[in-house]
Amino acid sequence: MNIAKLLHEANKGFIVAPAGCGKTHLIAEAVINYGNARELILTHTHAGVDSIRRKIRALNPARQNYQIETIDGFILRYVSHFPHTSGWSSFLDDVDWASVRDCGICLFKKDFIKRIIAATYSGLYVDEYQDCVLEQHAIILELSAVLPARVLGDHLQGIFNFGENKIIDWEKDVKRNFREIGELNTPWRWNNAGNPDLGNWVSLLRQAILNNSGIRLTDLPNSVRWINTNSQTDVVKECFSVLSRINTTEGVVIIGLSNQPQRTHHIARKLRGQFGVIEPLESKDLKKIIGKLTDSCAYKRAIALLDIAVLCFSGISKTILTQEYSALEKRQLPNRRKQLTISDPLKAFICNNNLESMISFFDSFKQFPNSHLYRKELYFEISKILRESSSAGILLKDALIKVRENTRRWGRRIPKRAIARTVLIKGLEFDHAIVLDADSFDSKNLYVALTRACKTITIISKSDTLLRVIQTPHLIVNGNDRQ
Questions:
Q1: pLDDT at position 46
Q2: If one looks up domain 190-278+415-466 in CATH, what number appears?
Q3: 324-356, pLDDT tens digit by residue?
């Protein structure tokens, strides 16, 4: 029987879905071809929401028999609608997700909520289930009491286990609560790109990781290159080199370690806006910036706006803007510099100190000479917040909440040329990938990083062996053999 049909007909089942084997397409096919009423589809990231939505629309743009949200966004929506029952007491710009999930567990145990869920949706799909924390898993189990629940995931891609997060145990939490429907094993991502050799290499890579073996970067397929360097200058040159060799319509991602955001930001700055940084939705930089912009003093707000320009653009620095910073810190108007496009908007903002003049000053950064916007997502998110505050007549902190909520609900588009950490691009597909500091990755982050691209992978590392294992025979992963 068709596996999409099996998935749809399962009352409480799971599918093991290695990277690139058609998991997102399978969900889309099950919903479009076999779903009649409204299906609820939950995933973890906003990029994932967008990815699933695009897959469904590609199959049938007219169908509307589904609702896609992040798991946490879905929980937050319900607990905020029923604050008394759930125990949810506030809706702040800095959401305490652990508290949201605890309130969700309390709420979704209630019979009246289960009746609402059963009347609203005909079934449930949960993507990337290996990344569920235990509280999310508990809520999914409550939903599965009233909805057919199908979960898809791969324990080798469980990389959200950081901070206080305690993610599920695949053997204990999934296999004991759901019936196995099957395992996907066709490397569609690479086959569809006409690149079966890379798909074969990725399959060998997976087996090496499962066997706890080291990965030797020898005898690689033509679509995989190893660059032996740790020099930032060489890394930047290689990134430009990759761009020069590919079609301008193709997507490229530079992937860095999840715990090193400053490394990816610095590389992006050196690449002069050719790549856009993918930001976490709960960006600490964004919250800090909006907090500073709420100050009543025009001079302090102007300094905060200049800080945004320095943060988001290469070619703009505190050194270049020394005169402006110095004057504003003394609460003086900076002298007008004819060659500086921001001078007049800055003066207008200091004189008016309102949102309209703030937006004009903010927009003027894009005309700054010899500058390149590289933290595009952060910059345009701030722009949305300023405009939402102005048009709706609400406080900046309330506009921040509204813009974030819209992103949670509708997802976000990923730039064609992106630079990101693994946690922000898991589940996404690109034509080409450049993996930085590959010999510093753990097994799960490495597997996620090396399975994003369908055409070429460039691996940058100091060592020719990844996941080096002491006193364990190496599995040589190449396009031809396995030892």
A1: 81
A2: 3.40.50.300
A3: 999 999 999 999 888 788 999 999 999 999 999
CATH code: domain 3-185 is 3.40.50.300
Residue-wise pLDDT for 255-295, tens only, equals: 998 878 889 999 999 999 999 999 987 788 898 999 999 99
Q: Please, are residues 479 and 221 in contact by the beta-carbon 8 Å criterion?
A: yes
**Average pLDDT for residues 298-310, to the nearest whole number?**
98
Bridge partners, residue 199, by sequence: none
Amino acid at 242: V
| Segments making up each domain of the chain, as ranges | 3-185, 190-278+415-466, 284-410
